[in-house]
Amino acid sequence: MVIFKFLVEDTYGIEFFKKLINRLKIEDLIPTEVRIDADRAPAACNKKLDRILTTTFKFSTRDFVKAIVIHDGDGNPENKRRILLNHVPRDLRDRVELLIFEDEIEEWICKSLEYRLRGLKPSVALSRNLERDQGRRYEKRNLPEFVDQLNFDILNNDDERFKKLIIFLRN
Question: How far is CA 54 from the centre of its chain?
Fold first, then answer.
């Protein structure tokens, strides 16, 4: 068994990533022995991240292999990466991966459903397309429901962050 610690900025992202990992295993994109322990990540500028990572690797009763910190980039992922990296202890950086979306996690859903963003935030574009196609709006609490609609072929070919996640979970 290989255990990864997932620290997810979005409350509903915790369940989303748990479902995603299960689906990735079913579709044989990652090893079946991969397990995740997902919790809420602190805000990017919060010093709590270093304490959480230190506790995860040095004091936990579970044998975590690596951790992944998942945050929305809010249009500036490199700035978010720089801020988060400042809160990852230097001696743990080889065991921690930062997965920062350009804007937000709904990018994967929009790409999978082939919804164009047209300058909108992905969650707004998703909501507008759902309203047009299905007569309903997108709400954040519905995020985990969309795991089944992710198109892994599209994401594996067109999304560097998705590819990075798969590689991270395979190693």
Answer: 20
